[in-house]
Amino acid sequence: MRVAVCQLNSRDDRKANLAAAEAMLERAAAAGADLALLPECVDYLGPAAGLPEPEPVDGEVGQFFAGVARRLGIWLIAGSIRESGPDPARAWNTSMVFDRSGALAASYRKIHLYDVEIPGQVSYLESATMAPGDQPVVVDVEGLRVGLSICYDLRFPELYRQLVIEGGAQLLVVPAAFMLYTGRDHWEVLLRARAIENQCFVAAAGQTGTHEPGRTCYGRSMVVDPWGTVLTQVPDGPGLAVADLDLDRLRTIRAELPSLANRRL
After folding, report:
1. Disulfide engineering: 84 pairs with which of 11, 54, 130, 212, CB 3.0-4.6 Å?
2. Catalytic residue positions, numbered
């Protein structure tokens, strides 16, 4: 299975953001990717005043990415969008998975919301406008078990353990808009930790650069193997990285160092 992580600088122009995402996906398909991952907030990342209205997974953005997946013949994890729900004041932060035919194979609503106050650095209250999901999701991608998560979920290892133990995940995906201040110290460490402790591949696609005054995302999208080795990484700026997942290596690591089988709790 060849996986592509796509790094974008989504801003306050949805049409331009979708065009940039489509162009990156075309590059991924040309590189032979079977599965491509886009970042969180793929369709809009800018001032709150310009936020598009939330929409269902089969709305304008969902239909757009379904069409791209179908045209390119790839599996596509469309980062995340603001999905409409029963609460008019709060949307879900939702990731959508499309198969090669463009059919919606799964969707996941972000469980852990980013409510953080670091004086002088980061101030964000995601729960003010977003509702938490409550269901972990694993999707079968042509025999590869893929566990879904979004950004801040990365700090909660119990979610990933459940995806692996109960869902049989072999690949964990993390679309993100990880802030620069925390990302430069925590992003790679957390991704490698989730890979090592769960003996899984991890693919993470991040937003990069400045999106509005006071908000800069770290980027450094990457693919990590079950030993914790970074297989590939996107440098600063929009870009693409591709890696082949060797499932025989995953099985070997789990057999030779059976930490999952040796769990006591």
Report:
1. 54
2. 40, 110, 151
